[in-house]
Specification:
Elements (H helix, E strand, L loop, with lengths): L2 H6 L9 E2 L9 E7 L6 E8 L6 H15 L4 E8 L10 H18 L6 E5 L5 H9 L5 H5 L2 H9 L6 H15 L5 E2 L6 H18 L7 E2 L31 H9 L15 H14 L1 H12 L5 H27 L2 H29 L4
Parallel strand pairs: 3-4, 4-5, 6-7
Antiparallel strand pairs: 1-2, 2-3
């Protein structure tokens, strides 16, 4: 999508990023937006849940888009770790802070630059939560209760249906709108949640005379990365479905070797399952031309999957090596990481406070 169309509105990526998977709770990625201010840079917000080390789905679906916008002088970028969105499903409290730092380390390792982007942790900006409560006054319980993602979650884990799950789309709306974002990179499965944010925008603007932009979906090429198991998306909740950014070549080869395949040829190139997953990854890492060569071979002489997987593993690892080296650098200087987070929180809080003050005043709250 070109810049002009983005300016008119658009997550594809993760988000929302919030690129939530079919089980809803593993929405690893999710926010990504931009605000157009008169005579100012356009503002971008993106975030990933605090589920530990990032995988290829996070990287291709969210982080690469974040990097492109960060390096575009037309944008002012805000990138967060969405730890509050990580506690509406079962989690280990003692691990949450560690998992949050893992995401921060992967952000920095992948190239998110604190000199260019504001990097922060969602829970450290309490204005997100307060704004979400104010937004909750214009959205009915029935509206969120009937969201397909919520219904699916109830079926999948009926023993863990809590108010935070129901409230999730309202907090997501606040995450987006507190920075007045109008473009959000999210997967198609997040569109129902994005529509909640749009409804909040319309109702708050109409009822209180505010000026929130209506956020729209923005897609990137890798906005949906298929699972290595051949069904669904890469997800931390499904073991064997993903490749971590920290995986070495041996591990990547082992994971790709387990991707289910067929006999290697047929009358029609598969659009689902393990073969489709492999071809998608070939497209993303080796290019469309190479993918087309494999598709042609499938319809004629056949594909030798062992060779395809070996080459693909090498190409993936080659792209991850610089990320892994940079991550090691930051792991050795966590004080520097702490300083980055303190400075990022201060900057994000300043913007958030301004928006919250506008809403409080409009709603008559002293």
């Amino acid at each position: 999508m070109n810049k002009s169309s983005m300016a008119q509105g658009d997550e594809g990526e993760e988000r929302w990023h919030h690129g939530i998977n079919p089980s809803f709770q593993e929405a690893d990625f999710f926010i990504f937006g931009k605000l157009i201010n008169n005579m100012q840079k356009k503002r971008v917000l993106s975030g990933i849940r605090a589920t530990g080390r990032l995988h290829l789905g996070n990287y291709l679906g969210a982080v690469k888009g974040m990097l492109a916008l960060q390096n575009d002088p037309d944008y002012e970028t805000y990138y967060m770790v969405a730890d509050l969105h990580s506690i509406n499903t079962p989690y280990e409290p003692k691990e949450l802070a560690k998992q949050t730092r893992e995401v921060i380390l992967d952000y920095l390792a992948a190239g998110i630059d604190p000199q260019k982007s504001t990097i922060f942790i969602q829970s450290q900006i309490s204005e997100h939560v307060e704004l979400s409560y104010l937004f909750s006054t214009v959205i009915s319980v029935a509206r969120t209760f009937h969201l397909p993602t919520y219904k699916e979650k109830v079926k999948l884990q009926p023993e863990n249906v809590n108010m935070a799950l129901l409230y999730y789309p309202i907090l997501m709306a606040a995450d987006i709108l507190i920075y007045k974002a109008n473009a959000v990179p999210v997967g198609d499965d997040q569109l129902p949640h994005l529509e909640i944010a749009r409804e909040v925008t319309r109702k708050m603007n109409s009822k209180y005379g505010l000026d929130f932009p209506e956020p729209e979906q923005f897609k990137t090429k890798g906005h949906k990365i298929p699972s290595l198991l051949g069904e669904g998306k890469m997800s931390k909740s499904v073991e064997g479905s993903y490749i971590n950014l920290t995986d070495d070549l041996k591990t990547i080869k082992e994971k790709l070797a387990k991707v289910p395949t067929d006999e290697g040829k047929g009358d029609k190139v598969p659009t689902r399952g393990g073969v489709a997953t492999l071809l998608s990854l070939v497209d993303l890492f080796e290019g469309e031309k190479r993918k087309e060569e494999y598709e042609k071979a499938y319809l004629n002489s056949g594909i030798h999957y062992k060779d395809l997987k070996e080459k693909l593993a090498e190409v993936i690892h080659e792209e991850l090596v610089p990320i892994q080296k940079k991550r090691s650098f930051f792991e050795k200087d966590m004080n520097k990481v702490d300083r980055i987070l303190v400075e990022g929180a201060e900057k994000a809080r300043k913007t958030a406070k301004t928006t919250l003050a506008e809403v409080r005043k409009a709603m008559g709250i002293a």
